[in-house]
DNA sequence: AAATTCTCCTGAAGGC
DNA sequence: TGCCTTCAGGAGAATT
């Protein structure tokens, strides 16, 4: 499942290969992604030159003079740069061709998406409602504290609300709460300003560490080595139900919050 | 407004 | 080449 660090790594990995390149062709083999990929993408992206590749939350933006392609990797998607003659596999749904090379979207579960918009991309319906970037200065303890007052939702669901802060995935939410010593079910509105300051810090720390590791995979984003892969982030709690807490040896617990698994240490997190 | 539930899909894992 | 059930998960949409 591509989390924000994987998307950022992908962004940095593909950017040098496609920036300044002109799209010679767009091949949509299967338009049935999360949303139906429209013909407008092929029609309007073809012939355009990518002038920059940026990221907003977990969306990748291929910016051109006439519009923006908005890509999301869902939970099983990946992008890589290939030779345009590379035969497609079963789950290779979209190729954006740049002469002799292509950007290929592979996505077995098809939770990903590709949109095209002519309007300023920040006004797009998928982008506009997003909260701040977790790695920005705007995102800090005070931001969390102020917006959580009177809120009864569990803190884990609170920090995973993309309208508040965009791109903290399920894994890093559990990890950050562990690092901050906060129980995932604590009501968001009952957490102190200081605790939120710590939480915001560890969120940035865990995301930056993962991006740092991703940096080592950027060398060759072409052919095979394309995927950043999933970081060998040493996880303290995620997926470790029953295993002893690294700090106090008490077994890690797993609970469900909003159809999503959460992991925590019952002794270290209050 | 806030909170909760539903939904898309398929590879992997587990039970028998 | 075993078959069937269950589950995970991003996040927008629908519902309460």
Considering the chains and any ligands shown, give keywords for the structure.
25% helix, 6 helices, four-stranded antiparallel beta sheet, alpha+beta, N-terminal domain of MutM-like DNA repair proteins, elongated, 19% strand, Helicase, Ruva Protein, domain 3, 270 residues, 2 domains, DNA-binding, 10 strands
Radius of gyration, taken over Cα atoms and rounded to an integer in Å = 20 Å
Count of helix runs:
6
Secondary structure class reads alpha+beta
Task: State the distance separating the first and last CA atoms.
Answer: 28 Å
How can the largest sheet be summarized? Answer: 4 strands, antiparallel
Named CATH architecture of the largest domain: Orthogonal Bundle
Strand content: 15-25%
Total count of domains: 2
What is the string of helix and strand elements?
HEHEEEEEEEHHHHEE
Helix content: 25-40%
Spatial strand arrangement across the major sheet:
1-6-7-5
Average of per-residue pLDDT values: 92
CATH fold name of the largest domain: Helicase, Ruva Protein, domain 3
Counted beta strands: 10
**So what's the overall shape?**
elongated
Q: Stretches where pLDDT falls below 50 for ≥5 residues? A: none
In the CATH hierarchy, what is the class of the largest domain?
A: Mainly Alpha
